[in-house]
Amino acid sequence: MKTCITICASSALLALATAAHANEGEHADNSKDARADNIVVTADRLGDGIAYDLVGGSVTLLDARTLADRQTRNVSDILRDVPGLAVNRIAGLTQIRMRGAEGDHTLVLVDGIEVSDPYHGEFDFGTLIADDGARIEVLRGQQSALYGSDAIGGVIHYITGSGAEAPGLRLRAEVGSWNSVNAGARIAGVSGNLDYALTASLVSTDGVPDAIGGTRDLGRDTIAASFKIRWDVAPNARLIAVGRYSWSDLDFNNSDYRSGSPTFGYSIDSPGSFVRSQAIYGLVRAEVELLDGRWTHNVSTQFADINRDGYDYDAPSYGDRGNRIKASYDTALRFGSPRVQHRIGFAVDLEDERYRNTDPSGYAFTGTRSNSSVGLVGSYDLNVDDRLAVGGSLRFDNNQRFDSATTYRVQGSYRFGTGTRLRAAAGSGVKNPGFYALFGYVDGRYIGNPNLRPEKSRGWEVGLEQSLANDAVLLGVTWFQSRLKGEIYTSYPAPDYFATPANRTSDSTQRGIESFAAIRLGDAWRIDLSYSWLKARENGVEEVRRPRHIGSAAISWHAPADRASATLVVRHNGDQIDLAYTNPNFIPDRVVLDAFTTVNFNATLALSPAVTLNGRIENMLNEKYTELFGFRAAGRALFVGVNARF
Question: What's the longest Cα–Cα distance across the chain?
Answer without folding.
Answer: 76
